[in-house]
Design brief:
The complex is a heterodimer of chains A (about 425) and B (about 220). Chain A has about 425 residues and is mainly α. Chain A contains 16 helices and two strands. With about 220 residues, chain B is α+β, with helices and mostly antiparallel strands. Classes of the chains: A mainly alpha (about 425), B alpha+beta (about 220). The interface of A and B includes residues 69, 90 and 422 of A.
Chain lengths: ~425, ~220
C-alpha cells in the first residue's frame, strides 16, 4: 500500500509524543487517517465539499455557542435580545451574520455534496451506509435549521413554526394531539420557543456524532472518485496529507472569500425582511416563505391538493434518498461512463431548481402547474428512470485503473504515487 | 530526501528549493496564525459588557432629603449596593476616638479605596453623609448596618458587620484588625448636585477618580 514509506517508523522524534502515543495512540491514529490514508489520486474539486461541510458545522457551532450567551429564549425577550446582539453586544452583528449566512452556505455545500454523490454514484456498493448516514445528517440539519430560524421570534419565525408544526396535523387520528404535544400549548408559544432553543443547541452535537459515523464508514473503503472505479494498488492513490489537505485548504480559502462577501456586503440577501418584524400571533404575513433551502420541499408540499398526501410527498422526497442505492440498478458508478444517466442527472438538477423557484412564489396560475409537473418528474426520476436506465443503458468501457486513466490524460504526470511518497 | 535518488542536476538546486519551501511554510503558517487570532478576537470581545449594559452603568441621582440622622438607605448602581448613611454627631465623634482608631487596619485611608475628596477622617464629602459600596472586601457579601452601640458585642460603637465571615467595619466603613476582610469599603465617585441630591458614578469637576482604580471592590 501507499503507506509503506512510513510503516513501522516511530510516530515522532519527540520523546513526549512517543510517551503519550504509547498510552493514548492519538498520534498513530492521525498518522494512519491522514498521512497514510490512501486517497484516489484523481479527486476533483467536487470532492472538496465534504470537508467544507465539516468546517461549516464547526463555524456554526462556535458562533452558535457565543450567540447563546446573549440570547433570551422567552417570547417577550427573544426578538429584542437578537436586536441587542445586533446593536449592543460587541461584534454581535458579526457573529450573528456569520451564523445566519453560515446556515445558507451549509445547505449550499451539503446540496452540492449530495449531487456530487448522485453524479458519481458514491452511494453504490460498498458505500450504501455511508450515503444513508449522510441523509440522516441532512434530516438533522433540516430540523436544526428550522428550529434555529424560529429563535429570533420574527414574523417568519412564528408563522413558519406554525405552518411546519401543523404539517403533523395531517396524520389521521392522532394529528392534532401530536401538534399540541409539539407546541406544549394551544399554539406556538413560549414552551415551543424554549424547547426549540434546547433542541437547536442539542442537535448539532448529535450531527457531530453522525458525522463521525459517516467518516468511519468513509475510511472503511475510502473515497469514491470521478472515474467511479476501485483503487487497485499503490499507483492509484496518494496519501490524504499533504495532497488533499492542501487541495481542501485552497477550496476553503475560496469558500471563505464567498462567505466573507455575504457576511460583510450582503448579510441579509438570503433572509426575509419579514423576520425583522416581531412575531404577531394575530397577523399572518401576506406570504409565508421558508428559508430558500427548504423551497423545493415546500413546492412539493403545495403542489399536491390533499393535505395528507402533500405532507407524505414532501417527507417522501427525502425518504427516497435513503432508497437510492437500491433504486439505481446500474453497476457503473460514475456518470462519466453512463451516456443516458449523465443527462437525466442534469434534468434532475434543473427539476430541483424549478421546484425551488416554484416554492418561492404564491401557488397561483402557472406556478401550480409547474410545481405539479416538477414534483411528478422528481418521483419519476427516482422510481422509474433510475431503475430502468440502469437496466437498458449501455455504459462506456471503464478504464482498467485510475493510474492508467490519469496518465493517459496527463502523459507528463509523475509516475506511480509511491515515488511521490519518497518526499516524506 | 530519500537516499535512492541519484545525485544530479536537480539536486544542485535542492537546497535552494528547501529554503524556498521553508519560507512558504513559515509565512503561510504565520498568516494562518494571525488569521486565527483576528478571528478569535471578536468572539472573546463579545463577552465584554455590551453597550446597553454599559449605558445602564451611567451615573444615578439620589435624593437624600428623607434620610434622617442615624438612618441608612441602599441604592443600586452598576449592580452594586451603595450605602448612603446619615451619621449623627455622636457617631461622628466615635470616628475620631483614638481608642477606636487604634484597632483599625487603615485608619487614615492610606490604601486607594476612595477618591481624594473622601480621604479624610470621615471618608466622605460631607462629614455626616457616608457613601460607600456595600460589598465586603473579603469575599463579596453585603455587610449589615449595625449602628447601635453594643449590638455586636461589648465595645461595639456602631458600624458594619459582615454576616458571612464576621468582618467588622466602623461607621466610616473602615475595616477592623483581626477580621478576614483586608481593606476599607470603597467609596464610589460621587458629588452633590445640591444640598440633598447626590450624583453617584460621577466625580466632581477637576477629579478623575475611577472606581476600577481601587485596590478591591
Amino acid at each position: 500500500m501507499a503507506n509503506q514509506a512510513t510503516h513501522g517508523k516511530p510516530v515522532s522524534q519527540s520523546k513526549i509524543v512517543r510517551w503519550i502515543d504509547h498510552r493514548l495512540p492519538m498520534f498513530t491514529f492521525m498518522q494512519h487517517e491522514l498521512n497514510e490514508y490512501p486517497t484516489p489520486r484523481n479527486l476533483s474539486y467536487w470532492w472538496n465539499f465534504g470537508s467544507l461541510a465539516g468546517i461549516t458545522l464547526v463555524i456554526m457551532m462556535t458562533t452558535g455557542i457565543f450567540l447563546a450567551m446573549q440570547y433570551d429564549p422567552n417570547v417577550n425577550d427573544a426578538f429584542n435580545s437578537v436586536e441587542r446582539i445586533m446593536r449592543d453586544v460587541p461584534w454581535g452583528w458579526l457573529i450573528r451574520y456569520i451564523h445566519m449566512n453560515g446556515a445558507s452556505l451549509f445547505f449550499i455545500v451539503v446540496y452540492i455534496h449530495i449531487f456530487r454523490g448522485l453524479y458519481f454514484g458514491s452511494y453504490k456498493e460498498p458505500r450504501e451506509l455511508l450515503w444513508m448516514l449522510g441523509v440522516v445528517i441532512l434530516l438533522l440539519m433540516m430540523a436544526t435549521a428550522f428550529m434555529g430560524y424560529v429563535l429570533p421570534w420574527g414574523q417568519m419565525s412564528y408563522w413558519g413554526a406554525t405552518v411546519i408544526t401543523n404539517l403533523f396535523s395531517a396524520f389521521p387520528g392522532v394529528g392534532s394531539d401530536i401538534v399540541t404535544w409539539l407546541w406544549g400549548g394551544f399554539a406556538v408559544g413560549n414552551p415551543t420557543l424554549n424547547r426549540f432553543f434546547s433542541l437547536h443547541y442539542l442537535l448539532p452535537f448529535i450531527i457531530v456524532g453522525v458525522v463521525i459515523l459517516h467518516l468511519i464508514a468513509l475510511h472503511q473503503h475510502g473515497s469514491n472518485n470521478p472515474l467511479g472505479i476501485d483503487r487497485k494498488g499503490p499507483q492509484d492513490s496518494i496519501p490524504f496529507h499533504p495532497y488533499y489537505t492542501i487541495k481542501d485548504s485552497f477550496g476553503l480559502g475560496v469558500f471563505l472569500i464567498i462567505y466573507a462577501l455575504l457576511v460583510f456586503y450582503w448579510p441579509n440577501l438570503l433572509g426575509d425582511p419579514q423576520n425583522y418584524i416581531q412575531a404577531n400571533p394575530l397577523q399572518t404575513p401576506p406570504e409565508i416563505v421558508p428559508e430558500w433551502y427548504f423551497l423545493p420541499f415546500y413546492a412539493i408540499l403545495r403542489s399536491i391538493p390533499n393535505k395528507l398526501l402533500g405532507v407524505c410527498a414532501m417527507f417522501g422526497s427525502i425518504i427516497t434518498l435513503f432508497l437510492v442505492p437500491w433504486l439505481d440498478t446500474s453497476r457503473v458508478r460514475s456518470a462519466f461512463f453512463r451516456p443516458v444517466y449523465k443527462w437525466v442527472f442534469w434534468v434532475l438538477v434543473f427539476d430541483c431548481l424549478v421546484l425551488g423557484w416554484v416554492g418561492a412564489h404564491r401557488p397561483e396560475g402557472i406556478y401550480v402547474i409547474e410545481g405539479r409537473l416538477a414534483t411528478i418528474y422528481f418521483y419519476l426520476h427516482f422510481y422509474i428512470l433510475m431503475p430502468l436506465i440502469g437496466i437498458f443503458e449501455r455504459p462506456l468501457p471503464l478504464p482498467t485503473s485510475i493510474a492508467e486513466a490519469v496518465l493517459k490524460k496527463h502523459p507528463a504526470a509523475p509516475a506511480p504515487a509511491s515515488a511521490a511518497m519518497g518526499r516524506h | 530526501m530519500t537516499d535512492t535518488v541519484q545525485p544530479g542536476p536537480a539536486d544542485v538546486h535542492s537546497h535552494e528549493g528547501e529554503s524556498r519551501r521553508d519560507f512558504l511554510t513559515l509565512t503561510a503558517g504565520a498568516m494562518a496564525g494571525i488569521g486565527v487570532i483576528c478571528t478569535a478576537w471578536p468572539f472573546i470581545d463579545s463577552m465584554q459588557p455590551a453597550q446597553d449594559t454599559l449605558a445602564a452603568g451611567a451615573p444615578i441621582d439620589v435624593d437624600i432629603s428623607k434620610v434622617a440622622p442615624g438612618q441608612q438607605i441602599v441604592v443600586l448602581w452598576r449592580s452594586h449596593p451603595v450605602f448612603i448613611a446619615h451619621r449623627t454627631a455622636d457617631e461622628l465623634k466615635t470616628l475620631q476616638d483614638p481608642k477606636e482608631t487604634a484597632q483599625l487596619r487603615d485608619p487614615n485611608s492610606e490604601v486607594l479605596q476612595q477618591p481624594d475628596y473622601a480621604k479624610n477622617w470621615h471618608r466622605s464629602v460631607k462629614p455626616e453623609i457616608l457613601v460607600v459600596v456595600g460589598i465586603c472586601t473579603h469575599l463579596g457579601c453585603i455587610p449589615e448596618f449595625q449602628p447601635q452601640p453594643g449590638s455586636e458585642g461589648p465595645g461595639w460603637l456602631g458600624g458594619y458587620f459582615c454576616p458571612c465571615h464576621g468582618s467588622r467595619y466602623d461607621l466610616a466603613a473602615r475595616v477592623f484588625q483581626g477580621v478576614p476582610a483586608p481593606y476599607n469599603l470603597p467609596v464610589p465617585p460621587h458629588h452633590y448636585l445640591n444640598d440633598t441630591t447626590i450624583r453617584i458614578g460621577e466625580d466632581p469637576p477637576n477629579s478623575t477618580f475611577d472606581l476600577n482604580d481601587v485596590e478591591q471592590i
